[in-house]
Design goal:
single chain, 125 residues, four-stranded mixed sheet, 2 helices, globular
Length: 125
């Protein structure tokens, strides 16, 4: 079965964005690879952060276990980053949303370049 290997994400400052994903989501900033800062999402997938102003905002959704999901929520609160339970709502809630693996508790927030980030967990749904 095919798997997503990597995704190129245009960001205004690749190193700053790599740190954001590392600190907020717990992803590993691996290295600089040519024009990219490489951020490992899991064993099979990386985000390749390209230093170009984004032309369009992307939506990136990541499935986490419950502890990691709650950790992201705590870090959002600690940093004063608004989040919400709907794709374009920042009401401080978590809501059930449909995704590739069915319904899951989800929350949405914007990264440094206004890409819409979703984290979701199927644990205890």
């Amino acid at each position: 079965m095919p798997q997503l290997d990597h995704l190129i994400v245009r960001v205004s400052d690749p190193l700053r964005s790599a740190r954001f994903y590392e600190q907020l989501l717990g992803f590993a900033h691996e290295h600089n690879g040519g024009p990219f800062e490489i951020v490992r999402v899991n064993a099979a997938t990386t985000l390749d952060l390209l230093g170009e102003p984004p032309k369009d905002a992307m939506h990136l959704a990541f499935t986490l276990d419950r502890a990691s999901f709650e950790g992201v929520r705590a870090r959002l609160l600690a940093r004063g980053i608004a989040y919400g339970g709907q794709p374009f709502t920042r009401d401080g809630r978590v809501a059930l949303q449909q995704g590739a693996h069915g319904w899951a508790d989800s929350l949405y927030f914007y990264d440094l370049d206004q890409h819409n980030i979703e984290v979701r967990t199927h644990d205890n749904v």
